[in-house]
User: What shape does this take?
Amino acid sequence: MATKPYIIALEEHYYDAEVKQHFRGLDAVAAAHVVDRLDDVGALRLREMDEAGIDMQVLSHSMPGLQKIDAETAVPLARRANDRLAETVRAYPDRFAGFAALPTADPKAAADELERTVTRHGFKGAMINGLTEGRFLDDKRFWPVFERAAALDVPLYMHPAVPHPGVIDAYHKDYAEKHPGILRAAWGFTVETATQGIRLVLSGVFDAYPGLKIVLGHMGEGLPFYLWRISHGLRGSTGAKSFRDIFCEHFWITTSGFFSNPALICCVMEMGIDHILFSVDYPFVDNMPGAKWTETLPLCAEDKEKLLSGNARRLLKL
Assistant: This one.
């Protein structure tokens, strides 16, 4: 009988009760069973992990996290929320690891909080949800966060949030009421987060911090499919390295909420298996479809092991 593979899921969300109090309408965005699971970091979550054969989740605060909270409020709130996440990880050290929530409205404080959570709590990096004060993270005011992440040798996971209001008005308003998913997983999330990835490459932040590592979910928000065309369109303007070279060196991608063999094979052919990691996107996506997908992956045994846990162990030093 074949031995069950060890599975690490990298983009798995929860709500901190105190952070949740700062937002309205979260229950309207997510179905009741999703909200129940976001609120749970104990028995229910562990049972559903066991049922699907998922050995470890890297927990991260669901969108919008702290990115929509003002600096004065977010800085002490981040500390409290991250300390509570650390308690959860300590309670289940074989089942959970943590990504920090960062108060990006104060970039210096965000960098300090990243360092505190990594050095004190053993967090594996941080997750950042969308824009901060309407700005993409490549804005130089946020570069202290990138500098610190590179110095600590931990990745930053760029997660989507609802697009900028101006983008919604120009691109989506005609269909958003009837098809609210267009603002989120169906398209809005992808376009905004892929744009963030492109802007990071063009900003020069990887020249400034050569060790910087970025993670994108949802099969890289579509960017692996476009790598050749983007590189061709930007030829001559990105210096000695092409866009594709920079992206493939500094970005890792996950399978969160995207269980497609053709998409996976595209990503493997463009980026190589070493930069692709398994994720579910729990509880917005159920564990079981992702787990079932892993049983028939079109990969050799060595590459399957890398996808399901090996790459995560190396990237996150698990």
Remarks:
- The chain has 16 helices and nine strands.
- The beta strands are 8-14, 56-61, 96-98, 100-101, 126-129, 156-159, 214-216, 251-254, 276-277.
- The chain has a mean pLDDT of 95.
- The first helix runs from residue 17 to 20.
